[in-house]
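In response to reviewer comment 3 from the previous cycle, which asked for concrete evidence that the modeling workflow produces usable outputs, we include below a single protein chain processed end to end. The sequence was submitted unchanged, and the resulting structure tokens are shown without manual editing.
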Amino acid sequence: MRNSFLPLIPELEHAADLLDRAVDAYLANNHVVASAFIAEADIPEIYEYTARITGPIDPTIHWQKSMPKDVLPSHERSTLRMPTAKDEVAIFKRDGWRCRYCGCRVVSKKARSVLIRLFPKEARWGRRNIEKHTGLAALTASLDHVVPHSRGGTNAFSNLVTACGPCQFGRNDWTLEEVGFNDPRDRPPVVDGWDGLTRIL
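The workflow returned the following structure tokens.
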């Protein structure tokens, strides 16, 4: 059993550090330094790491050769696909703004949008994945259904955990058992001073 598809690479933590410094610099009215930190957090190795996990099925990573066939038809699934925005933030705070699978720090979607608006060149955000800022793309906070929605999972807080992009989109409709993941709810969340860069809002 394992906690995530691949071991956490140091470049993800480095990108989180750089984005943290960028927000501090921006709030101190030093936009040139903030711009430089954001550009430095756009790390090619992060794209490669993410593409391996979220790209075509690789049995050595996903432990599966195909997507599950026993997904529920839409009319049999929980009617609410996602919780409210308020509940979403409450879960992110509960989880310390960290992926409950690999453990990396994640960034608020709203904070990401602010950085893209303020620094459109450095925080590039094109249509294709390769055109997106690698650090911001991989570290954007998302909610993951531990029991996938397509397999009968609900929006109960107990079934929702914070996830980074690779862990969220790599698992798709597979269950924890199918990908050989330990249940993240068996490990207490790490809650410290990390705020998901929400202080920029």
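The chain is about 40% helix and 5% strand. We consider this sufficient to address the reviewer's concern, and the full set will be provided in the supplementary archive.
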